[in-house]
Amino acid sequence: MFLLWLAFVAPASSQIPVKVQTPTNTKARNLLEKAQQQTKERDFIKAIETLNQLNEKFPSFGEAYLMKGSLLKAIGNNRGALAAYRDGLSKVALDASHASEYQMLGDLALSYGEYQTALNAYKMLLKVAPKAHRNLAKSERQLRTCEFALEAIKNPVGEAPVPLPAPLNSFKFQYFPALTADNRFLLFTGRPAASSGEDLFVSRQNKDGTLGMPVPISRAINTSYNEGAGTISGDGKTLVFASCDRPKAIGNCDLYISRRTGNNWSAPANLGINVNSTEWDSQPSLSADGRTLYFTSTRRGGQGQEDIYVTNLQPSGSWSPAQNLGTPVNTAGKDMAPFIHASGTTLYYVTDGLVGMGGLDVFRCEQVVAGKWSEPKNLGYPLNTFENEASLFITSDNQKGFCSRSRATDEPAAGSRMVRERPVELFSFAVPTVVKARETSTYTQGRVFDANTKKPLKAEVKLYDIDTDVLTQFVTSDPEYGDYTVVLNEGHHYAMYAAADKYLLKSLSFDYSDKHAFDPLTLDIYLEPVRSGRSVVLNNLFFDTNKYDLKPKSRTELNRLIEFLRQYQDVQIQVSGFTDNVGTPEANLQLSERRAESVVTYLSSHGIPPARLRAKGYGDRNPLAANDSEANRQLNRRIELRIL
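Structure for OmpA family protein, as requested:
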């Protein structure tokens, strides 16, 4: 017996050498030579038929199975190739000459999620392959992938996602789902047919909680160019999406922004050279307030072929130069499809640069401090599978998740071409505890009005964390309807301010530090003009019981008040103190006066001229509510700002 080498040119123009041992049986040898000749003539289908005859008559001849496996792989019948390689390698001796076949068997089995078969193949490869084998490091990593996957399947995390019901999933392709903070609008990229370009679609939530018929987002957005991979801010007013090959583009695919006023979207604008590169930029994800943007880019200087970058909206209205997120988020592999949760503290993305289930898996990491992220954690099975996962979205309340997946299709018959573009659907799932964002979010929304005319106002609505005096949200109410939406995180105490030009600052307080009553709120805001005699309650000044020293967490309110007085330098104010009716009138009057004086002292010590400031105490006079409950007494214990 002697060895015969056969090489043929595959359709992809890569030579695949297959070592075939010549059988001593004449009939077997004739069939083998016939198959070899048919292969040289590039008649792969007939060669496979001949090898099938050889397999039937001489089932112990393993090399014929391996040759058939290479031919099936060449014509795109990967499932058939997997079976052929598995049969063939079970019939030949463990030998270094079969290293490439063990590699191929492992890769094929892994691509179908047959982890045990793949694990065994990689183990065999590592036993026989020389140390200089070019794919040795890859195979060692794939072996770890198989071990991880087998363990993950034994310990599933939650239930498998299920397709969204009709009228969703009516297209051939739909992907990149994103929702507004109140879950009223679902944005996604759709392609009605395989030949269709990408457009952005919106499905509105019905009164019963179901999602309605998807419609194109706007004629101002969807054009003859591809518009896909969109993201929308929590209030539904800022849209960023990717579009390719547009005129005056910076790279082959750029990111564009559009803003909604009333019911109309503005003409998309390129985000410019601080964000876009001469390469591919896509897959954006906006923070809830639309002021921080994460996205994927292939620009030079990254850690892998695709990396995740971040940019921030500046006070000037421009975007900061995009920064690579760096390690541990970005790897030497593909790091793609970021999603920042509404809370702003948890990032999800897909990567093949970390050990997972195979291909692209979804990972989760938490922001430790600004710009620094924890080690990514795999979301586990069944959210991750042997196939490439796409983008993930989790609602602000951490209850429901959305993703897109390919529908399973039957394997092509031997000799047919592999279907490369399987239909893609939108899926949803209940979010397991370990997958949830670190912080659960809710929202408050409503409208901003002029207190006199009751007409809607365009106002800046800012949210501060009182414990840190850090601005966490900054949105603008709609100039036509006055509506706004602000996202708040569980476990925090917030101060919210609404401000418009020539109007008094409105102060509101949301204390979720003890996690009670953490539900969405509808709250309309009425702003008083900056006019003599007008007053407003300062809701975020804090004193201990029967004390007049301002507590440290009052600095957020005091600093906003200083900003207001610097903006309106001709305004003089009176700081008025009030108490409830607990205690003697004399003691209450003294306490209210000293508390008002504490505020004036702070303002004057921070640069506000004392001549503009007055302090006055009213004790338990002028209550806002009857002093018949603790809630009402709390309303009556207050500090007011009054324009003189």
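The two ends are 109 Å apart (CA to CA).
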